Amino acid sequence: MRIFYADKKRGAKVKIDNLDDLWYVFQIVDKGDLVGGETTRSVRKHELQDAKRIKLFVKIEVEKVDFEQFSPTLRVSGKILVGPEDISRGHHSLRVGKGSLITIEKNEWDDFQVEILKRAERESKKPQVLICAFEVGKASFGVMTSQGLKKAGEFREPISRREKNYEKKKEQFYKDLWKKTVEVMDGLSVEKVIMAGTGFNSDNMIDIVKPKAYFDKVNDSDWKGVLEVLRRGTIKKVVASSRLELEESLIKNFLEHLEKDDGLSVYGLKEVREAGGAGAVKELLVMDGKVHDTDIKSLIKLVEKGKGKVHIFSSNSESGDNLKGFGGVAGVLRYNYK
Predict the structure, then answer these.
(1) 212: burial class by Cβ within 10 Å (0-12, 13-18, 19+)?
(2) pLDDT for position 206
(3) Strands (DSSP E) along 49-189, which ranges?
(4) Do residues 235 and 194 touch, judged by C-beta distance below 8 A?
(5) Fewer CB atoms near the end CB (10 Å): N or C, the chain?
(6) pLDDT tens across 51-65, in order?
(7) Parallel, antiparallel, or unpaired: how do β-strands 52-66 and 73-82 relate?
(8) DSSP state of 290
(9) CB burial class (10 A; 0-12, 13-18, 19+) of residue 253?
(10) Measured between alpha carbons, how far is 122 from 1 in angstroms, rounded to an integer?
(11) CA dihedral defined by 200, 203, 209, 211, rounded to 10 degrees?
């Protein structure tokens, strides 16, 4: 996400760069907000003319926001308040997707909403995934960033099948390749890597790097192999898993404290609000379907006032299902306040 501005006075103007950006925008747009963006609408200037779809800028007073995880668009529906003079002020759905430039205005911005946008921008600037396409003796690296896929070097350690101790040298190559891969990851500050080998090479690498990598198979160990991984869509799955892994870690921590009965896990709106009022909430876990509720927004403000962190869970994830079983809102505490 690219932020042109984001503050409580002016609102926000942002450009959507990827699927995760839509997820972040969905979390902050509420009913009654004003969302502006470019759209198309069927227009007939004269009764005898056929209607034509034209591009125009509109600003909508939000009535409903629809978004499904992994969907390529966010749909914002409501009444048009601002637009060309010759366009009727009826209801319209603004579709927001990759490349969209939108403005968001609110009567009141919460701190966590501004922070969500800034977090989205920080995340989009990070290199997302490293790809290593390889076979015995050589490998090619590519790194996926918010600006696209870029070359990240090569690794060569020629080995001939005719050599003595070929199997031993092959195993050593796998170890050397993984060492080089870790060096590239550290140099680029990348946390995720896809090891994509030709033939059975991926299978042979599993015991060396598991569970520190994702695996795929390719037909080439050069740049073509890196592009093959990109076209297959493996990167999207890996990037999506990063957020899910965080959710899994948070819900696991919550459940562990609950099982210990040490007073550091609370759930349900009443209990979490009480802990928030005592300034005891360290991590607030909230289902995405509840972030627009008035009571939940009030709770989020309370937790933020106490320097707690807010985490929004996807309703389509396993961790989200677990959280749903506890009323969709839970907290991990700094201390037992009772």
Answers:
(1) middle
(2) 86
(3) 52-66, 73-82, 91-97, 101-105, 129-135, 138-145, 148-156
(4) yes
(5) C
(6) 677 888 999 999 999
(7) antiparallel
(8) G
(9) middle
(10) 8
(11) 150
Q: Give the span between the Cα atoms of 337 and 192, in whole angstroms.
A: 38
Alpha helix ranges (H) inside the chain: 19-28, 111-125, 166-188, 201-209, 223-232, 234-260, 269-277, 294-305, 318-324
**Domains by residue range for the chain, with CATH:** 2-125 (2.30.30.870), 129-232 (3.30.420.60), 246-333 (3.30.1330.30)
Distance of alpha carbon 79 from alpha carbon 329, whole angstroms: 32
What residue ranges of the chain have pLDDT lower than 50? none
- Cβ contact 130:60 at 8 Å: no
2, two tokens: 């690219």
Chain Cα centroid distance, residue 228:
23
Residue (of 146, 123, 91, 120) closest to 25 by Cα position: 120
The separation between CA 42 and the C-alpha centre of its own chain, rounded to angstroms, equals 33
Q: What are phi and psi of 3, to 5 degrees?
A: -100, 125
Hey, what amino acid is at 157?
E
Q: Return d(Cα 111, Cα 247) in angstroms, integer.
A: 21
What per-residue string of b and e applies to 45-75 under the rule 16 or more CB within 10 Å gives b? eeeeeeeeeeeeebbbbbeebebebeeebbe
Report d(CA 274, CA 286) in Å as an integer: 16
